[in-house]
């Protein structure tokens, strides 16, 4: 059930229920971060492997020490700059954070969402919320209440409607290691903005990097339709000329294909707008009964890199769940 009733959401959460939860990035599947029964339900409904840790959402920076300890000054600098907002920090956890949240690690992922309804809800609770994205493991992330309802209508207590997500892709995740700031996942805050504060971010080595995060899985965010990412859309269109093709493009249409099978992420060529529309457009294209979706590679700076990261994972055929961090750039 989709509803705007925040008090009803509070009632469900207080009874250890789980709800669809609006944030500026994507919709989360939220439950009490201190209640293992609620957290178990989240893993079950998402079919998410339990070795994948969850992000804890807090209502204000004053609550950070309730979930994390030994917080380095650079973490506070980043929090002061980007919170509330789509930056997740990996910090040493407080002992009472359930192992299920952190996948038995001694670190916890935490952020403050920049969404008025999410914050209003968190302010009515006396616990933080864990909220992974509200999609089945590896499928397209939800950016509207309707997307969540389509995935989980009968399995969750309600979807709290907070409109369309404004950022539209997941948070950027960074951690701290021996005075270095480590980039774990590209996301809604461009790396360049973080590096203004931290200097050059460290990218974990593919083989060594731990923990394994779902955002790092080879296949993720994937439509059901075959999906191809390319620098040369025309060439791929020729290759698939006998197929029913859909196109996901940045800012201009391709000739030789009915525009009803084409989606532009931003006619104005604005990467922020493009990121905000990415998942909704993937949902739309996936419903057109196409044989193949061909996506154009985005410009390789700012949010273009985050968009390309999601498109690369959407294009992967198999999900190798072991240590399979993706491709060239090591994410
Ligand atoms: P989701 O909310 O589905 O986008 O997933 C949350 C992301 O945060 C996943 O990629 C998690 O693996 C990552 N994450 C959560 N906790 C940690 C942690 N302690 N260390 C590294 N990554 C984490
Ligand atoms: Mg996710």
Number of domains: 2
**Distinct ligands, ions and cofactors found in the model:** adenosine monophosphate, magnesium ion
CATH class of the largest domain: Alpha Beta
- Low-confidence sequence ranges: 319-331
Report on the biggest sheet. Answer: 11 strands, mixed
Radius of gyration, whole Å: 19 Å
What fraction, in percent, of the residue positions are helical?
Answer: 25-40%
SSE order, one letter for each helix or strand: EHEEHEHEHEHEHEHEEEHEHEEHEH
Q: What global shape is seen? A: globular
According to CATH, the homologous superfamily of the largest domain is: DHBP synthase
The third-level CATH topology of the largest domain is DHBP synthase
By secondary-structure content and strand pairing, the structural class works out as alpha/beta
Overall strand count: 15
For the termini, the CA-CA separation is: 36 Å
- The CATH architecture classification of the largest domain is Alpha-Beta Complex
Can you put this structure into words, describing what you see?
With 331 residues, this protein is α/β, with parallel strands linked by helices. It has 2 domains: 197 residues, DHBP synthase (Alpha-Beta Complex), CATH 3.90.870.10; 90 residues, Rossmann fold, CATH 3.40.50.11030. The chain is built from 11 helices and 15 strands. It is globular and about 60 Å long. The two termini are 36 Å apart. The C terminus is likely disordered.
